[in-house]
Amino acid sequence: MLQEQIFKANDIRGVTTGDTPEWDVAGATALGVTYARLMKGLEDGPVEFVLGRDMRDSGPALAAAFVSGARSEGARVIDAGLTSTDELWFVSGYLDLPGVTFTASHNPANYNGIKFCLSGARPVTAEFLTRLRTEAMALDAAGPDLATVAAAGARNGSYREQDYLQEYAAHLHSLVPLDGIRPLRVVVDAGNGMAGHTAPSVLGPLGLDLDVLYGELDGSFPNHQPNPLVPENLVDAQRRVVETGADLALVFDGDADRCFAIDETGAVVEPSAITAMIAVQELEREPGGTIVVNTITSASVPEVVAEHGGHTVTSKVGHTYVKALMAEHNAIFGGEHSAHYYFRDFYFADTGMLAGLHVLSLLGHSDQPLSALVEQFARRVPSGEINSDVVDQQASMDVVAAAFDGRGSADRIDGLTVNGAGWRLNLRPSNTEPLLRLNVEASDRTTMESVRDEVLALIRS
């Protein structure tokens, strides 16, 4: 079974359990067959790829079915086992092979999904994802005999298991100046996700006083949902920082490719401020470099980049779009509002763990607290991302566009963006969920709240 709604703009994601699943092992088998067929025309030589998965309960069965389907077409599979998404990107770059990882990122426990990359961690194209959807759904509808596919998979291609966690950790350590940092007490909230697997190997050797919350891998997420964009999922880490006098907290999402920072007061550091902070450090290393941001990143970031002699390129929201622009412009760094951070030296891919290491380096080489370090970069008041269930997303955006007509410059590059005098709003459909996402920022809180409340009243009425 493969239902069309699981195919998103950048990946696959859908419900796998309960009374109304959206895909299953038969669908995963069809995806594996189709993937191997498509890759024959995209990569030189025999089809070979590296496979990973997160800790979700449905992962082993779905991944095994995908492997059977791909091997039935002669594919060679290297199974890296449990991996964070950014670890899978690393292995793809390290081996110069395409990558496939089974994860639903920050979605609840009853979801699973797949993210793809080409060799060298390069993003797949929209055309690839469209063909994968069309051809896999047609194959699934035809009802291939799973036993026959499994038998063919056992005969064809090849399969081996190989762990790359230590190579991943060593590569991250090589990219950040960590020698001589002062002793830091660091709270890490793994949220029972993949940071519980990677953080000990990456952060453990650094001499930090580590306080790990929810480090046990558990795809049922018994403590809180693995989505740090939702404020309630940050509360435990905020409380722990204040109670223990920690210097900061790092909070990861389910597949650990995103990282949020919390300062010593328990306040959440806006991802745009982290983007600006890391951009300055990268521009010191390579003056005049290019930084990629998305359409929702604070306008403070291009200001900071320009002040430090860099150039900014703006992308649509989503890792496939940002990665493509990173490679096109040979950008040294990129950041999104959702706490995805991209590095040229990490195969132009996103990695929350490397971003966390940069924050630790900056803080560890300073005698200031994190709140003081980021103050110069937090120049606007953000609303944070506010989600609304809306039946007709396009109609709602049209209503808002009409209401704000003449009050600023508007574009439809990525949803609806309106730039007014001292404020900006962006309203766009989610790439992964049936939601409208609103982001507002302004030079002062009163203006931000006024614009925010006006838009919400329009779309929720």
Structural topology:
Layout lengths: L11 E4 L9 H15 L8 E6 L5 H14 L3 E7 L2 H11 L3 E4 L8 E7 L8 H17 L3 H10 L2 E4 L3 H10 L10 E5 L5 H9 L5 E5 L21 H10 L3 E5 L6 E4 L5 E2 L1 H15 L4 E5 L5 H8 L3 E5 L3 H10 L4 E3 L5 E3 L5 E2 L1 H13 L5 H6 L5 E2 L3 E3 L4 H11 L5 E3 L4 E5 L2 E7 L6 E7 L2 H16 L1
Parallel strand pairs: 2-3, 2-4, 3-6, 7-8, 7-9, 12-13, 12-14
Antiparallel strand pairs: 1-5, 4-5, 9-10, 10-11, 14-15, 15-16, 17-22, 18-22, 19-20, 20-21, 21-22
Helix pairs in contact: 1-2, 1-4, 2-5, 9-10, 9-12
Description:
It is a single chain. This protein has helices at residues 25-39, 59-72, 85-95, 126-142, 146-155, 165-174, 195-203, 235-244, 271-285, 300-307, 319-328, 352-364, 370-375, 393-403, 445-460; strands at 12-15, 48-53, 76-82, 99-102, 111-117, 158-161, 185-189, 209-213, 248-252, 259-262, 268-269, 290-294, 311-315, 333-335, 341-343, 349-350, 381-382, 386-388, 409-411, 416-420, 423-429, 436-442. The protein has 15 helices and 22 strands. The radius of gyration is 22 Å and the shape is globular. With 461 residues, it is α/β, with parallel strands linked by helices. The protein has 4 domains: 4-163, Alpha-D-Glucose-1,6-Bisphosphate, subunit A, domain 3 (Alpha-D-Glucose-1,6-Bisphosphate, Chain A, domain 3); 167-254, Alpha-D-Glucose-1,6-Bisphosphate, subunit A, domain 3 (Alpha-D-Glucose-1,6-Bisphosphate, Chain A, domain 3), CATH 3.40.120; 271-375, Alpha-D-Glucose-1,6-Bisphosphate, subunit A, domain 3 (Alpha-D-Glucose-1,6-Bisphosphate, Chain A, domain 3, 3-Layer(aba) Sandwich); 381-460, TATA-Binding Protein (2-Layer Sandwich), CATH 3.30.310. α1 packs across α4 (126-142) and α9 runs parallel beside α10 (300-307). A hairpin with a 4-residue loop joins β19 (409-411) and β20.
